[in-house]
Amino acid sequence: IERTLSIIKPDATKRNLTGKINAKFEEAGLRIVAQKRIHLSAAQAGQFYAEHSERPFYGELCEFMSSEPVVVQVLEGEGAIAKNREVMGATNPANAAEGTIRKEFALSVGENSVHGSDSPDSAKREVGFFFSGLELVG
Ligand code: GTP
Ligand code: MG
């Protein structure tokens, strides 16, 4: 059974959408096996998104991700990584399919409500970035 790291981003926590977004995960058969609300520093956001450090929007991304609290969570299910990305929808909400989280809730390509790991390697790294083994309750 697969696990993936999800983040409900500041634009969504600010608008009180945590429950509505979690309902989307649960309806898709993803189980929330760990979850906590934290406020990242810009440096922590920068470390998490280090792979994007050369991209032109990196500064804006780190500033946004540290602007308000986020909810970090581990989702579990068959093919959880791909399933979560399907439920999230395209990065740019203008391209996101009907019924996806980003279609319904995202404000822009930057303020796009959720993050999800994009591969087994990144899921392992990203889950370990936020959670200890003791916090993961299958
Ligand atoms: P994540 O699940 O958050 O990683 O999204 P993604 O995999 O769909 O997109 P990607 O990894 O390419 O980019 C990471 C994040 O950077 C996106 O989710 C956006 O929040 C942000 N981002 C991507 N492109 C842009 C952009 O052109 N402008 C701004 N401001 N932010 C961007
Ligand atoms: Mg990504």
UniProtKB/TrEMBL annotation:
An example Gene Ontology molecular-function term: kinase activity
Pfam families (UniProt xref): NDK (PF00334)
Catalytic activity: a ribonucleoside 5'-diphosphate + ATP = a ribonucleoside 5'-triphosphate + ADP; a 2'-deoxyribonucleoside 5'-diphosphate + ATP = a 2'-deoxyribonucleoside 5'-triphosphate + ADP
Cofactor(s) annotated in UniProt: Mg(2+)
Active site: 115 (pros-phosphohistidine intermediate)
Binding residues annotated for ATP, in chain numbering: 9, 57, 85, 91, 102, 112
Places the protein is found: Cytoplasm
Highest rank taxon of the organism: Bacteria
UniProtKB keywords: ATP-binding, Cytoplasm, Kinase, Magnesium, Metal-binding, Nucleotide metabolism, Nucleotide-binding, Phosphoprotein, Transferase
EC identifiers of the protein: 2.7.4.6
Residue ranges annotated for the Nucleoside diphosphate kinase-like domain, each copy included: 1-138
Enzyme class: transferase
Database matches in NCBIfam families: PRK00668.1
Function: Major role in the synthesis of nucleoside triphosphates other than ATP. The ATP gamma phosphate is transferred to the NDP beta phosphate via a ping-pong mechanism, using a phosphorylated active-site intermediate.
Summary of subunit composition and partner proteins: Homotetramer.
Protein family (similarity comment): Belongs to the NDK family.
Identification of the protein by name: Nucleoside diphosphate kinase
The species this protein was found in: Gemmobacter nanjingensis
Gene encoding the protein: ndk
